[in-house]
Amino acid sequence: MVFICYMSRCYQKKESGFSIIELLVVIFIIGLISSSVLVSYFNGNNQYSLTQATQILAANIRQVQNKALSGQQQGVSPYGFGVKIVSATQYVIFLNPTSAPSNDYVEGSSQIVETISLPTGTVVSPINQRIFYIPPDPTTYLNNSAGAGSITLTITAGPLTKNVVAYSNGKIEIN
Predict the structure, then answer these.
(1) Which end of the chain is more exposed for a tag (fewer CB within 10 A), N or C?
(2) What predicted TM-score, i.e. pTM, was given to this entire model?
(3) What is the pLDDT of residues 83-105, one digit of tens each?
(4) 154 pairs with which residues across the strands?
(5) Would you call 42 helix, strand, or coil by DSSP?
């Protein structure tokens, strides 16, 4: 409390408000908390995009396997079904008709069933990888090879990475 004396009378004046130092400290703390919330938001967004892209790719490969097991596509008996990574942000589901039997994607004769684009900010590598299934077993061809092995597709969103692994025995794994 501050006492002010004026014309032989003293008055008591209360100090109210905040000092400039107190205001600056509060503004700094609010800014620090806001920046940490924004950073965690963007990291969560990258994590969500990565998980979504990985799950969709694995589900599409499983869908192609199921189509090869059933052996039918809109009343047509195709030679086989496959997935091809066409670019860093896009892949296609395709079928090869019995009129043009091939264990691989053939430009011009393979019929594209669906083109899938990855969510914004996610990329898949390596490009031009192919997974192909021939009914009814289905026999699995990885990059036009029926031998034992696997293909690892890496999906990246910012600094985060996940892998979808397709094995020649038909197993599909996310790690």
Answers:
(1) N
(2) 0.76
(3) 999 999 999 999 988 877 888 88
(4) 125, 163
(5) helix
